[in-house]
Amino acid sequence: MMRKIPLLTAILVLIKLNVAADVVLYPDPGDLSEIEGIRESGLFDVTVNGEDGFVYHGSEPEFNKYGYAKKGGHFFTFEHDDSSTVELSLKVDGEIEKFEVLPKLVEVEKESSSVLNYSIKGYAKVLTKVWIAGEEQWFILSAEEIEHEIPDSDDPSVLFLEAGVHQFGRTWDPFVDGVKTLYLAPGSVVQATIRSVDKKGISLIGKGVFAQAVWENGKQVSPLKAEWMADMMGMHFRDSEDIVVEGITVINCPSYQLEFADCEEVYVNNVKLLGFGESNNDGMHLYGRHILVENSFIGASDDRICVTGLFDREKFEVTQKSELQPRLEDTDVHDMHIRNMVFWGQKNGGDIMITWNGGKTCQDILVEDCYSLGFTNKGFLAAKHGGSVVAKDILIRNIELFHRRLVSLEVKEASCWGAGGGAIRDVLLENVSIHAEPGEVDLQMLGHSEESNISDITFVNLTANGQHILSLDETAIKTNEFTKNIRFE
User: Fold this and answer.
1) Please, which residues bridge with residue 118 across strands?
2) Separation CA 186–CA 163 (nearest Å)
3) pLDDT tens digit string along 315-349?
4) What is the pLDDT of residues 141-164, one digit of tens each?
5) Do both 238 and 324 map to the same domain?
6) Mind giving me the DSSP string for 257-325?
7) CB atoms within 10 A of CB 360
8) How far apart are CA 61 and CA 278, in angstroms?
9) Does residue 16 belong to any structural domain of this protein?
10) Whole-angstrom Cα distance, residue 285 to residue 223?
11) Rounded to an integer, what is the distance from CA 98 to the centroid of its chain?
């Protein structure tokens, strides 16, 4: 299904790193006092094999729609050789009343009232929920493969950002004047959002952090601004081809965190999108063709991945509200592969939003080997469809849900600037394991009309707490007369 994604070997001048250590810890970024919303954690301390690591705390202290963004979350990344077990100790400033680690990819034991010990073999991304003084706190851990290749800092096509603080402002385009690669070295913190249009053969790579709390969402800027406008995004790539985004972390994005609008040949690997922004922080918008996304963690207060939808073409300057809709367009979406992901829903939306009122085409979508951690108002697989596209040929397999919300598919009349008349067809969900009782598995599949229906949805080996579900009657999922041919095997 997927064609091989080009890895830009023609534009990257690579050098080998001599890494003898089993564990690589990142340097302290230095003075963060001028970077709003990010600092060293005062709640969590980490040691890895006895060595101290730097834990970040990211939050949106001023502009936030949801209160939890003001509290924010804590995160830590390190690299290791997966041939040996790594011992990580997490010390908490307070008494641990209870804790939970999801997904269950590492072994964790409580050593004392304030210390958790992790045994890590292999690469993993996990969320630890820790209750301290009655309040839930969040620690996100990413144990990653050692980075053996980095671009040459002397290459004129490389913008190489060393460890430390860098400030570039809003809607920065680093891919100008011959720059093809932006590299964020471990320990770098970059205060910037990115808007880059009409590019070919570019890469955004490294282990640094984008901190974006300094910018408010568009709704707070002007009544003529909206969160979906291109200059509101954390990172917006449009009309571009052959793009690599790999390794980076994003925190406190003012709006949608990473959007590809009408792009082709996109490869996203090992990114950490952590949310905690002002408003509805959708994780990724993948509006394009020949896209592979893998090995990543997405925390978001709205949809974690939106497969197809409307985007801002920026065709003209908006001077009145009636001009907002004409700036929105859609595009063909097909040949998309999403795998080995951890999704954390922080407030709203689905993990895989098939369509947000999209048009044109949406087909040949494969999602596999994923974990869903968050309980939100929508299901793992979702659609809010007032658009015209017939979304079809979608395969979802090998999924583990740590909550009961499976599907929330809805086809509606023309709405939210969609043209209406769309449908959802030919969806297979296979090997889905849910941590809930069968009767608790819920949400909906609701068509709109005989033409705009939901049809041919097949569930194979769907289990809830180990019990094989063989009919809708065993669940709390709602359907209507415009939902056709639902099968269980």
Assistant:
1) 88, 108
2) 6
3) 999 999 888 888 999 999 999 999 999 999 988 89
4) 999 999 988 999 999 999 999 999
5) yes
6) SEEEEEEEEEEEES-EE----SS----EEEEEEEEEEEEEEEEESS-SEEEEE-EE---S---SGGGTG
7) 16
8) 9
9) no
10) 24
11) 27
Quote the mean pLDDT of the chain. 92
Going by their DSSP bridges, the two strands 311-312 and 164-172 should be labelled as: unpaired
How much is the average pLDDT of 372-390? 92
CA 445 to mean position of chain CA atoms: 24
Domain that residue 139 falls in:
21-145
> Which residues on adjacent β-strands are paired with residue 424?
391, 454
β-strands 454-464, 483-488 pairing? parallel
Final residue belonging to a domain, choices 78, 112, 145: 145
pTM check: above 0.85: yes
More confident residue, 225 or 235: 235
Instruction: Identify the CATH number of the domain in which residue 480 sits.
Output: 2.160.20.10
Q: Is the pLDDT of residue 3 over 70?
A: no
Same domain, 74 and 215: no
Residue 21, pLDDT score: 59
3-state secondary structure of 472: helix
Of residues 146 and 66, the one with the higher pLDDT is: 146
Q: Which residues contact 67 (CB under 8 A, 6 or more apart)?
A: none
Structure token digits, residue 399: 């999924």
Q: What is the DSSP letter of 2?
A: P
pLDDT at 449 over 90: yes
Burial class from Cβ neighbours inside 10 Å (0-12, 13-18, 19+) for residue 405 reads buried
Query: Which residues on neighbouring strands pair with residue 365, listed in sequence order?
Result: 336, 394
